């Protein structure tokens, strides 16, 4: 006589199998991109240091300023994805900025990050006020509001 399984047991087994397959998609991956900031190396970069010393301590910058080449930027980002194949959320984002003077000696070092949606300097513990440095998005929006397509078409 063949043994029959009860419908409740089959439902329980199907629910368990479905739960295991969904649990396989929840992984919680963390990603680190860019320059990994070494606090000890940053502490050795002092005002007056040469560009060669900065290269030896910190390595090649992620990017440099395009106007005058007076600043070097080391960019890092930590993101997290809780469910497989879904978007990532930024956990931490930092920019180490090394500013140079006219003689290409270090003027100052700043470590910027995001804290409550604002740019925050972790070294001097200050938040820049508006008007000091214009953000890219602000410049872009300002350019869009001054767009006059028929100004020169007379």
* N/C terminus separation: 96 Å
- Rg result: 26 Å
Give the structural class: alpha+beta
Specify the number of helices. 4
Mean pLDDT: 76
Uncertain stretches: none
The overall strand count is 6
The topology string of helices and strands comes to HEHHEEEEEH
How would a crystallographer describe the biggest sheet?
Answer: 6 strands, antiparallel
Instruction: Report the principal-axis shape.
Output: elongated
β-strand amount: 25-35%
Helix content: 25-40%
Describe what is shown at a glance:
With 154 residues, the chain is an alpha+beta fold.
Brief descriptors of the model:
154 residues; alpha+beta; 6-stranded antiparallel β-sheet; 4 helices; 6 strands
Task: Give an overview of the whole structure.
This protein has helices at residues 7-23, 39-44, 51-58, 136-145, and strands spanning 26-34, 63-64, 71-83, 89-100, 106-115, 118-121. The chain is α+β, with helices and mostly antiparallel strands and 154 residues long. Strands 1, 2, 3, 4, 5 and 6 form a six-stranded antiparallel β-sheet that branches. It is elongated, with a radius of gyration of 26 Å.
List the helices and strands and how they pair.
Blueprint: H1 7-23, E1 26-34, H2 39-44, H3 51-58, E2 63-64, E3 71-83, E4 89-100, E5 106-115, E6 118-121, H4 136-145
Antiparallel strand pairs: 1-3, 2-3, 3-4, 4-5, 5-6
């Amino acid at each position: 006589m063949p043994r029959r399984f009860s419908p409740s047991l089959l439902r329980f087994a199907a629910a368990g199998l479905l739960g295991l397959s969904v649990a396989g998609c929840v992984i919680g991956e963390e990603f680190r991109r860019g320059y990994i900031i070494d606090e000890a190396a940053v502490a050795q970069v002092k005002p007056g240091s040469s560009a060669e010393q900065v290269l030896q301590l910190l390595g090649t910058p992620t990017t440099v300023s395009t106007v005058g080449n007076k600043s070097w930027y080391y960019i890092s980002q930590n993101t997290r994805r809780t469910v497989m194949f879904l978007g990532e959320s930024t956990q931490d984002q930092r920019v180490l900025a090394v500013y140079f003077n006219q003689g290409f000696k270090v003027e100052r070092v700043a470590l910027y990050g995001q804290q409550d949606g604002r740019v925050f300097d972790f070294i001097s513990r200050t938040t820049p006020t508006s008007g000091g440095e214009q953000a890219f998005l602000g410049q872009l929006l300002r350019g869009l509001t001054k767009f006059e397509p028929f100004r020169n078409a007379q």
